[in-house]
Amino acid sequence: MVNIILLTNFVLSFAAEAMGCWKPEKSNTWTFPTLILCFYGFFCMMKPSEPFLTPYLTGPDKNLTIDEVTNQIFPVWTYSYLALLVPVFLITDYVRYKPVLLLQGISFITTWLLLLFAHGVVAMQVVEFFYGMVTATEVAYYAYIYSVVSTEHYQRVTSYCRSITLAAATVAAVLGQLLVSLADVSYFHLNAITLASVSLAFLCSFLLPMPQKSMFFHRKGIPGTLPGPDKVVATADLRCQEDQGSAPAGRGPTPEPQADHAKPQNHVLRVLVQLGKDLRDCYSSRKLLYWSLWWALATAGFNQVVNYIQVLWDFRAPSHSSAVYNGAVEAIATFLSSVTSFVVQYMKINWDLFGELALGIFSAIDAGSLFLMHFTTNIWACYASYLIFKACYMLLITIATFQIAVNLSMERYALMFGFNNFVALVIQTILTVVVVDSKGLGLGIVTQFLIYGSYFAVIAGIFLIRSICMLVSSKCQRKLARSCKDHRNHAEHQSKEQIVTGYTTWL
């Protein structure tokens, strides 16, 4: 109910603002593409069938076994996502976003057509491949808007786009649960509703205007090359900055002019070389490096858990003989995630000093939640553990996001986040090959969650140990500084006494 009220208020406020700003002036042209992009994002995330994917595949519609779904079908998504992520990331910027949004719409429709009418393990593996294409092309959704609106609207537009997708995911989960529990709608018809929704999203994508610039390959007003760190610092006043005591990652000496023959002649190669330099500069910051390390490790584990949590639920309470509340749990998890993400802005903490301690503590809570999922046989305990797990991760990923973003320009923001997700996907692929895939260990779903709990325990141990070392070092530095100050004050006091004594003796 709360999310529906928030969604209504969002639509009304956006409509009022759009009506007030709908003028032909160039400065207000952000309203139309933002409105269309919000519709696109809403229909993309309006998938009431998604929380019930595993019951659908293992039910009478597809008649697959849990082992086939877990060890043969779901791993294909990870492999296809990894294979497509880097080329899609580069192509997205090169073709200026809209064609990739169209490709995402086609992939959505293909996925659900196959999911509805195809049968067998191979067909479902093809479904996972196309869904990997869907997730790989998600980068175009958030990158598109920055190419068609001016800088002063970035924060507002980002808020609109993220809010609408969060609201859509919540509404979809609630709707799916209500249709299953109260109207006894079949999983097949839920997937048909999803197909209609993603088809509407595909139609919305045609209405988006074609951007004239992009972040890397088609930078407006800077033909031929991506600016080096020194130029971006001078114009954007935002770059990678290291914590005190080390050199800023985005700053540094102006590179020496190179001879013309030493520069790459190909524009694409020139941009790729600059991207490599930007990555090197960003990761030279120790602060960004450790936040990115947690990002990659935790995101890999989180994606793995989310990908297989329905299988665990179906194992604890088989859908053919038990009531299924996957939609309600996902709706509550999304709501809790939005609350924890919202609360971050009110947390007045020295993140440079206590940030890694927070990463360690909440990662330990995530590990405990996963261990509970492994050891308990109660489905309600599994549900509750998942809610805690997702809320803690969303809290930490929000903190990590703004800790990284505050030190980056928009170009490096996209580049570094994309690379962090790529590293996370590589780690996730390793986990999938070793733990899940039938060609690897092919472990049962319960044993898998023991592995995931141990994985997060290792992450918690790394950051707890590092945070303790940081706190001890900081305390020693403060103690040393206080001792030096006391010594200096004592020396000044003695000096004053000697001056007074000498003056008294002279008198």
Your description of this structure?
It is a single chain. By secondary structure, this protein is an all-alpha fold. The protein is built from 17 helices and no strands.
Topology diagram in text:
Layout: H1 2-21, H2 31-45, H3 53-58, H4 66-94, H5 98-117, H6 121-136, H7 139-144, H8 154-181, H9 187-206, H10 229-236, H11 267-283, H12 286-316, H13 326-343, H14 351-375, H15 379-405, H16 410-436, H17 445-506
Could you give the distance between the termini? 87 Å
Strand content: under 5%
Helix content: over 70%
Query: What is the count of helical runs?
Result: 17
3D shape: globular
Which parts are unreliable, with pLDDT below 50 for 5 consecutive residues or more? 1-8, 14-28, 221-264
- Rg, alpha carbons: 27 Å
Topology order in helix (H) and strand (E) letters: HHHHHHHHHHHHHHHHH
Helix and strand content put the structural class at: mainly alpha
- The overall strand count is 0
Rounded average pLDDT = 79
Largest β-sheet summary = none
